[in-house]
TrEMBL record:
It is found in: Cytoplasm. K(+) binds at residue 95. ATP binds at residues 11-18, 98. This is Type III pantothenate kinase. Catalyzes the phosphorylation of pantothenate (Pan), the first step in CoA biosynthesis. GO terms for biological process: coenzyme A biosynthetic process.
Length: 214
């Protein structure tokens, strides 16, 4: 890999292409046209059709999944979850994006996990029930008292639905938060850290560990 070229990483999700280009973030909706890159794009993807679109429209792409060494008994675990768990010895990894994934690592081994809707998905669910439930989340709602208005009632329910199962499974173990809502959710937990760009940092680690990647 030529060190003089830009390192272009792409995390393809269910709604966006998320690029990291020399430390700069760029996001494109899956239905949008993508810019042309002459440099190699190193990517992971949970969306086969979106990955095919990327491969078709770019000069050179490398799917990092084939270079990933990650063992688990979990069936159907997404590549994004595997990547954020890489190299973790003992911790709960919470990736809080459009979905919130929670994975358990013990002695560098994946023990399982679960998936919750992301905060934005919860909010959209309430909107679909009734226009009278169309509220943004109150990030300062008091979770120790019963709410006395609809916005707080919705916010309380959303946050409790996310926080309680994570606390139940984590107990006294360290929690690593990442993802767009990870820093916000981390404030409700002790013994936790927030790691920005964890998925991209681990993608770089895969590239650096594999001399076969050109």
């Amino acid at each position: 890999m030529n060190g003089e070229l830009e390192l272009i990483l792409c995390d393809i999700g269910n709604t966006t292409y998320h690029f990291l280009i020399d430390g700069i973030h760029k996001k494109y909706l899956l239905q949008e046209s993508l810019p042309k890159f002459k440099e190699t794009i190193f990517y992971i993807s949970v969306n086969d059709n979106a990955a095919k679109k990327l491969e078709k429209n770019q000069e050179k792409c490398v799917d990092l999944e084939e270079f990933l060494d990650f063992e688990t008994k979990y069936k159907g675990m997404g590549i994004d979850r595997k990547v954020v768990c890489l190299g973790v010895e003992n911790a709960i990894i919470v990736d809080a994006g459009s979905a919130i994934t929670v994975d358990i690592m013990e002695n560098f081994k994946h023990k399982g996990g679960f998936i919750l809707p992301g905060i934005s998905r919860f909010i959209n669910t309430y909107k679909k029930i009734s226009v009278k439930l169309d509220y943004e989340i109150n990030t300062k709602v008091n979770l120790d008292t019963i709410p006395l208005c609809t916005q707080d009632a919705i916010s309380y329910s959303i946050l409790k639905s996310i926080i309680l199962p994570i606390k139940e499974i984590s107990k006294d173990r360290k929690i690593i938060f990442t993802g767009g809502d990870g820093e916000f959710l981390s404030k409700y937990f002790d013994n936790c850290i927030y790691k920005d760009d964890l998925i991209f940092k681990n993608m770089k680690g895969i590239i650096n560990a594999n001399n076969r990647i050109a």
